[in-house]
Amino acid sequence: MMDANTTFQSGFEFLAPEYLLILPLAGFIALLGYHFMKKRRSIREQLGFRFVADLPLAFIAPAIIVFLSGVALSRPSIGTFSAELPQSTHSLFVAVDVSSSMLVKDVPPDRITLVRRKLLDLMDSLENHEVPVRVGILLFSGSSAMYCPLTADFNVLRLYIRDLSTTLLSSEGSDIKEALSKIILTTSQLNLARYSVAIISDGEFSKLPEDTSFPQAIYTFGVGTTDGGPIPLRAGGLQKDDGGNIVVSKLSEDTLRQLAQGSGGRYYRLGISDAPIESFVSHLSALSLADKESSVKQVTQKYEVSHYFVWLVLLFLAILYLIPLRAGVLMNLLIGTALLSGSPSRAFADSRAAIVGKEAYIAGDFEAAKKSLEEALRKAPTNEELKFALGSTLFRLGEFEKAEELLSEVASESKQGRRVFQSLYNAGNSALAAKKPKEAIAHYERALELLPDDLKTTHNLDLAKKLLEEQEERKQEQEQEQEEEEDQKDQNK
Length: 493
Prior knowledge:
By secondary structure, the protein is α/β, with parallel strands linked by helices. 55% of the residues lie in helices and 14% in strands. Among the domains are: 1-82 and 299-342, no CATH class; 90-294, Rossmann fold, CATH 3.40.50.410. The protein has a six-stranded mixed beta sheet. Helix 3 (111-128) links the parallel strand 3 (90-97) and strand 4. The longest helix is centred in the C-terminal third of the chain and has 38 residues, at 455-492.
């Protein structure tokens, strides 16, 4: 029985029409069988033989098997289910200024370090208050780039935040206009109707939009002081202008306040106090609640009937088994069915449990999604689509090692290049989140063999290598401390 908010629209179509090319083969087999049957009948009449096994069904059965298998593989659909699911998760894009002015030490120890600390505080607060929000991090200076895609996994976000630095983007300047354009493009690609934007900067933008209005509210966070300070250079010394004067970077609160008010947002000043973060989280929690009550997402699912044709094949074979045919004929039918039908798991891939699992995943109910997808996978244990979906769900639930194992399995078994890349990339993310950098590096490197120019994979590979270096350094330090303790014990003796 369908839910009240679920509708069904009838309409017949084949979702994999390329397999319809099998149907002419069924016709050819039927003609061949008919010709063979006539020839044997003529010989029997001449010799006076009569066999119970020589029934017409024995000769047309292969054609019927091939026809039904071809239709099943073509994935016939008789309509589409449509449902409106509430959007229970709000999306927040955090744009972080990583220009050289963020190295100024007017707030201890410097601006970029304060930003890292406050972002970690923000993640802790969102998690503690159980705010249903997905967070994506974008970096900007003279250019902009998506640093961490939208995710509700705060552990993954913390990994990215800890590696924030002014060296991640090489271009000079602070182009907030391009950063906002990047956010608009991303939300358009994700079909997000409602979201929020947080900008963390000192407000010294090289390019500011003439029109400060924005489709959604912008919340600005000021970093630094109005007195400012000199900008340290990575090579040493201080940044100077063309006249040889030391450049002083100051917090421009007016610019940040203007940008926030023009879009209907708010301005906060970051410092030692936790009040700005707590105030923002409270406001974001209210927005998330409003989204849950007012925002819905249209979900569609084709109603496939290919499994009925698989059952017809099995029923047909059962009938043949009851008829006293020669063993060789029945064996040929069984082998032919196995070769043509392949694995029936695809027919069951879109069972009710799989549909419920996919809908729960989209709605953000990952526990329910896990339960339904596991049930569907028990019915179709070789289906790579279900394995991939379950692996992604386990990642969302923080079961990183299980997610890595399942996604690695999909990457090894799949014949689709894009699916192999996605599985390797997500397996790498799972290993990285589980603090297993060696495994993550192996997955990312295999993924880059398929798509060498993928920026996200390249960036995550660098993160995994940094984490591996840190682990090895800590291990060496621990070994050194242990040796020193042993030496100290020997001296005491």
